[in-house]
Amino acid sequence: MPGPLFLPALQGSFGDWTYYSALVTLDDIVERIGYAAPLAENSSLAQQMQRRLDDGGRAEDIADYLLRNEDRFFNALVVGVLGGQPEWHPFSLSSHQPAHELGAVVERDQDLVGYLELSGDETLFALDGQHRLAGIRRALQQNPALGREKLSLIFVPHLATPAGVIRTRTLFISLNKKAVPVKRADIIILDEVDLTAIITRRLIDTDARFNRDVIDVQRFGNAIPANSPSWTTIGNFYDANNMLIRHFVEGRDEDELRDAAKIRLSEERIAFYQAGVVDFYERLARVEPLLRTVMGADAERRRAALLDARTLANPRLIARPVGLKIITAAAAELRLTSDRRHTELAINAGRAAAAVEAVRTEIEPETVAQMRDCAPAEVTAFLEEGDGAAAACEVQRCRETRQSAADDDDVFGHERDAS
Predict the structure, then answer these.
(1) pLDDT in tens, 122-147
(2) How many alpha carbons lie under 13 Å from residue 315 in its C-beta half-sphere?
(3) How far, in whole angstroms, is CA 181 from its chain's centroid?
(4) 305 — alpha (psi -120 to 50), left (phi > 0) or beta?
(5) Every domain of the chain and the residues it spans
(6) What is the structure's pLDDT at 391?
(7) Does the model's pTM come out above 0.90?
């Protein structure tokens, strides 16, 4: 049983809860704090909760984060306190600087600063932060030196009565069930670990070919107004780049990419993957005149070309966000088969058609039917080692295949948004 522990703390109140915010070493956290088992009346259910947390993948991810990031940081864990005799010891406030006379502040907050004493007889359990607690335990097993670091905890008294259990259970659910996941838009805009988000922002901010006129940074979905002067949305651009990074870029490291979801890569490796993404668009632009125009410096010419490419008279796959998604998916599928296309065009064209099918639920079925033959040809053309007659022939074949689209119903849709 651990002995008494004095923690520098603040006392506060919120609603009808009194709580204590204190700094605690990771060693003391692991030694003293358990999971929320006291809230489970059935001991078997409590054991299931503990096994799920100890064996879960999230705990491993959190441990990895703690071990590999010097700039690691957690928000406070919320800890329930059951039994024992925790005591609050306020102390008087004064300033050693004569010019900093606290005056009325001292009188108002005199009892809110002090030490929280834990006797060691208490049962402490995590109300919020159970996965973080499991991750801390794993991390300390591998690197005990982390135990000296301190984390902020919020201690909340728990009454061992039927009403007290209901009250604390309600708090547990409120803290966990109502937490809002980070939105996709915020990841794209702010995440400094997510490799694709970093590269997407850098291309928009530093490469004029993908600037804010080319990429609509206000839209995060896969639809864009048919009359928009922008090529695609930042959300669609992110998705396409992610597909390229993980399945197309030559020399990619699968283990490294798995780590990239948790650990920021070095600047050298970020630059490597960024160059691979840019290489894809440059190669595609060599065989796709519309993309050359989109990536060019003439904004008016780009706008006119995109508007024309979203009409029934001249429907172009590359002018639609969903078209970019199809092309990058097909290119990734082709890359998985072979890095050289000369001897495997027929096989890969079929595999690319399967890649189109994989995203069919996101597009109108009749649109997919018209595009299925086109996507492999357009991707095949730019993947050719030489983009001469063979590439031109493939692109022309695709365009001839879809000439009848104008005679059908509005295949690409004259809706407000261009998917």
Answers:
(1) 888 888 888 899 999 999 999 999 99
(2) 26
(3) 10
(4) alpha
(5) 5-179, 185-418
(6) 38
(7) no
